[in-house]
């Protein structure tokens, strides 16, 4: 619906790509990338975002894929960032699979993409030594861009939204054993600044020892729920010391909270109810909270 309250039908609900809780219409991306031949956009599973968009084209008409991907981010916003662009030839297809009436079978196309999709590695990680270049390599791999196009001094908010930042944090932890948290991107928005921050931390070190105290939910201090301490009702509180490794998620680490302290507190409380059944706690056992769909396909 536009500003004049005119409703437009832009596609089928089952074709929607749900990225971090936001509905992305493939038709919107397809319309924006119409300068290349025969574009069809499908969503494939992503570990953090839920789904990420991939464009399948007949041919790129000589336009570099990275240029197309950058133009989508600049024109539609970071949430529409394409995970990859693939040609029919790369998928081993001569033409798009269609129904009897000529409509593209996106479910078949999606299966083909998931079967053949492989992330683009733009530079060998073994040739990268400095932390700055290691971070640039992770960004390049995440955004499917040449490492040379990842800026060092510009803000990452120019090309990444909160979901993309979460995906970056996950890859950073897996590849380097170090952690960055969403609130830290605000203080250190440039890759160069992030590298300097990480260089001050040891391997598998989450940073400041008082990081866990950055946010404490309000409420009755006599309640059995205590975010900044052990849980009175937890069977583990009497036999396990607070961990010295990575801290539990903070306000801006939890995507579903969307920066809202009340939603963050409710998320913790609901999580604790489930954890306590198994003798677990938020502080001792929770490392991350990620958004997922409310249904699964067999």
UniProtKB/TrEMBL annotation:
InterPro entries: ACP-like_sf (IPR036736), AMP-bd_C_sf (IPR045851), PP-bd_ACP (IPR009081). It holds the Pfam family PP-binding. It comes from the Eukaryota. Residues 208-228 are annotated as: Disordered. Residues 134-197 form the Carrier domain. This is Carrier domain-containing protein.
